[in-house]
# Entry
Amino acid sequence: MGGYSSEYQISLQSGNVVYRNLDKSKYHIYRVHILKDKWVMVDNEENEYPINRHDFTVDYQGAKIIFDVVFNAIHGTPGEDGLILAYLELFGIPHTSCNYYQAALTFNKRDLLSALKPYGIKTATSHYINLGDTINEDAILDKIKLPCFVKPNKAGSSFGISKVITKEEFTPAIEKAFKEDSEILVESFLDGTEISVGVINYKGNITVLPMTEIVSENEFFDYEAKYLGKSEEITPARISPEMTKKVAVIAEKIYDILKMDGFSRSEFIIVDNEPYILELNTVPGLTTESILPQQARKADITLPELFENAIELALKK
# Structure
């Protein structure tokens, strides 16, 4: 848990929820904080023990702890972009996430959308900007139209995202996004119903969980809406059975196309009865009030069952 991005505090919350909900009579559980300035195992008294990065072990109470499996609850880098997963795979340590390549691909919004378009998956119109590029505002806005969204290409929890209503807001939005990432996306505004769809491998079967409708009090589903109660999350979503089935088929298709594993949560906007994908998260929030745990509860899957399933599937890989 933890990580190097703006999401590290949320990741610590997710990790602690996982820690509290796992069966301690079945597993020896250790909380590992992966932070920019330290990698440490933290015990119940909040004492810290350095992780040996040469083999991902820790010396604790006179013994060397060798981990059988890692539950990955790191949002953002290095847990959700594939870095820590590749590191663990070098040591042959199983983990609860997808493969490192799938993690890197899905974390990069531009590359994810580019990979899905040939399969007929609908996406917003977008324009990609690298830090240092010459930016022709008129040409971009002529293509994308206003209002639009400016967002970091590789970031989560809506950090750095702006909804741009007027041309005067465009440059400040770009500057804000570049504070989070050196690559940004400008995307057309899709005016429709926002749906969050959890797809997981549950007991060996790809399972689409009950969907959540997002109704934000703010201009969009931003950080305040996600974490500070400025939104209404309705599970199951208030969409027709036909649309529910249509979105489920697309969400499962995406999971299959990308050869995903473990947890995933896709965000869609439904416009004129057509679902458009915005992004896919491979380490979604796992706090008790996060969207995917809400969906699991509606599917009669408890948090202990959800988390234990992830560990058992990882151990079988």
Remarks:
- The mean pLDDT is 93.
- The first strand starts at residue 31 and ends at 34.
- The CA atoms of residues 82 and 101 lie 6 Å apart.
- The chain has ten helices and 16 strands.
